[in-house]
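S1.2 Input.
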Amino acid sequence: MKNNLKAFTLAEVLITLGIIGIVAAMTIPTLVTKCREQIIVNQLHKTHAVLNQAFKLAVADYDGIEGWDIGPNSDTTAGAVKLYNMFRPYLKLGEDCGSQSGCFYSGTYKSLFGNTISWHPRTWGRYARGRLLDGTSLAFWSNGSCREYRNILLCGAVYVDINGNQRPNQSGVDYFEFIITPSGIIPATPSIDDEICQFRNTSNLNGASCTGWILQNKNLDYLRRDISHESPK
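S1.3 Output.
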């Protein structure tokens, strides 16, 4: 009785393996990028929740932020320290730097497309700083006792490095901004602060206000294309 079983030739096997290799080379980098971006999205959501929870607890104990006596002047060390101290008891801190330098990466921070940022979070004198137990670094900035700015009451800001000392230490990638308002902590967007989130723009103000885009769209597409016409308001 004849054996009718068929087998692949060596050439066919090699061609198949070659095709699999090409497909893998094309898809694996995309999958790795998506995985890394999802980690950023998740960590940023977590940090937002932590800050909002601390805000709510502070308001419950000390009433509305308008009565916190942060001081009459914007952009002062004393105001930043007062604002930070209102949040501090409700944050699980691994390190408490206050107005002293520290709690952030000691090297250079970059903007979204490469320039060094102007206000280094580790040393800038108008910030008060701390680091959470999970490694997230926080820098508080005060706008005094809540002033109207671009149609919102702006009380201050929190700059966060979601992975602390780990690289890349880059605005819009692991360094972001949240806005403090009387009603809570909201993600920064270009429409409510002086920073931008813009593809290939080399300004040293580019990146920190990409927070709103990430929390709304759950991606970092601004690294690959112009999203300015789609940016959250």
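S1.4 Remarks. The radius of gyration is 23 Å.
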